[in-house]
């Protein structure tokens, strides 16, 4: 039997990695045999499976989380001259999606305990040009802005959630994505569920769903199946090449079939870290609200982070930094404003190896190496 998840070295030498459950190989082979690699039935089955899991009427699958964010902002009519509030503490993809629309990013602080933006942070950052807010569900934790939903709606400010970390997490009475907001997911290689590469967006209305379905296929009105039977096609608006290939959708479907296993495993792993870290002084664990979340990473704040990072790397432990703040990046320098809380977090943040090939033994090894590095 072929080893599905071969480890090169020790499991904790990688900060994150995908996990295969076994159905992926046959599912991909079936698509390869079909000769239909573009958007197709398998993609639509994947959309249905995601919608069912989230408990929402519809989901639009796209090529990546970044494309989902870009198209979500575009269907929310964000464009040149508009200002979009975004936490600086996020992956650069969130900010590039704003830039792709021609809009301006206005960087906001986050709570130092959760690394998620709060209603307070948004209100402190708002200007008369603000047209959208993109909360990032850091580590898998729902970002609760319900205290300002009404205020934002009154001012015509859209919420586009970056839930790249939070697939399967709970919010209110349902899953993240089911609260009536435009919510974007990533199914990239190291996310909770992977398609290899992929993403999805939860539209707010059938009209919005239709617009995104058109936009992801270069603005063409006909589906690929309709085009195959027609002598022409109509291009009806702005579009990008961002459909989800059937090859990627097949991987995602096989992964989703194992969702309960991954949900339990990722919660268990995070709790193992939580209990192992209680005895380590000088380390602050970033809380993900594990009872409600499917964690996607284990982040801590430590003094002298760069030294600790290199000490762990030297022991073969795949420490990471999620993330260097975006307002300090050259590409986004024009939107720089001082953000003292985020700057401090940016110097302290460290992510520990977190993926499904790890177990209690690996967590203990990582935590004792961390203890050693802190001494
Ligand atoms: C991964 C990620 C994205 C982008 O998703 P891709 O599928 O890699 O394009 C956006 N935001 C955050 C917070 C992410 O972690």
Automatic annotation (TrEMBL):
Bilayer-spanning residue ranges: none
Alphabetical list of CDD domains matching this protein: AHBA_syn
Cofactor(s) listed in the protein's UniProt record: pyridoxal 5'-phosphate
MF annotations from Gene Ontology: hydrolase activity; transaminase activity
Keyword annotations from UniProtKB, A to Z: Aminotransferase, Hydrolase, Pyridoxal phosphate, Transferase
InterPro entries tied to this protein: DegT/StrS_aminotransferase (IPR000653), PyrdxlP-dep_Trfase (IPR015424), PyrdxlP-dep_Trfase_major (IPR015421), PyrdxlP-dep_Trfase_small (IPR015422)
Domain of life: Bacteria
The family this protein is said to belong to: Belongs to the DegT/DnrJ/EryC1 family. L-glutamine:2-deoxy-scyllo-inosose/scyllo-inosose aminotransferase subfamily.
Listed PANTHER family: DTDP-4-AMINO-4,6-DIDEOXYGALACTOSE TRANSAMINASE (PTHR30244:SF34), TRANSAMINASE (PTHR30244)
Protein name: DegT/DnrJ/EryC1/StrS family aminotransferase
């Amino acid at each position: 039997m072929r080893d599905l998840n071969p480890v090169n070295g020790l499991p904790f030498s990688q900060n994150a990695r995908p996990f295969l459950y076994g159905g992926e190989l046959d599912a991909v082979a079936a698509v390869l045999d079909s000769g239909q690699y573009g958007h197709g039935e398998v993609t639509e089955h994947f959309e249905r499976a995601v919608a069912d899991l989230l408990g929402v009427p519809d989901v639009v699958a796209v090529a990546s989380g970044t494309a989902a964010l870009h198209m979500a902002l575009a269907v929310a009519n964000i464009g040149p001259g508009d200002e979009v509030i975004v936490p600086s503490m996020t992956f650069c993809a969130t900010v590039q999606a704003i830039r792709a629309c021609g809009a301006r990013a206005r960087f906001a602080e986050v709570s130092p305990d959760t690394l998620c933006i709060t209603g307070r942070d948004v209100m402190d950052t708002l200007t008369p040009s603000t047209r959208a807010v993109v909360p990032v569900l850091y580590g898998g934790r729902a970002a609760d802005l319900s205290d300002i939903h009404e205020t934002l709606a009154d001012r015509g400010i859209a919420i586009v959630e970056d839930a790249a970390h939070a697939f399967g997490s709970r919010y209110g009475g349902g899953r993240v994505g089911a609260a009536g907001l435009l919510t974007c997911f990533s199914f990239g290689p190291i996310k909770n569920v992977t398609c290899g590469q992929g993403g999805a967006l939860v539209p707010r209305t059938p009209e919005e769903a239709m617009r995104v379905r058109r936009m992801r296929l270069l603005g063409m009105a006909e589906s690929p199946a309709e085009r195959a039977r027609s002598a022409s096609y109509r291009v009806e608006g702005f579009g990008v090449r961002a459909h989800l290939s059937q090859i990627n959708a097949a991987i995602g479907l096989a992964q989703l079939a194992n969702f309960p296993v991954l949900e339990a495993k990722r919660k268990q792993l995070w709790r193992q870290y939580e209990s192992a870290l209680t005895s380590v002084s000088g380390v602050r664990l970033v809380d993900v609200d594990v009872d409600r979340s499917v964690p996607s990473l284990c982040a801590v704040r430590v003094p002298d982070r760069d030294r600790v990072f290199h000490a762990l790397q030297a022991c073969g432990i795949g420490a990471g930094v999620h993330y260097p703040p975006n307002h300090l990046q050259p590409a986004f320098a024009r939107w720089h404003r001082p953000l003292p809380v985020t700057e401090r977090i940016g110097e302290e943040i460290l992510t520990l190896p977190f993926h499904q090939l790890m177990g209690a033994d690996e967590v203990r090894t990582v935590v004792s190496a961390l203890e050693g590095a802190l001494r």
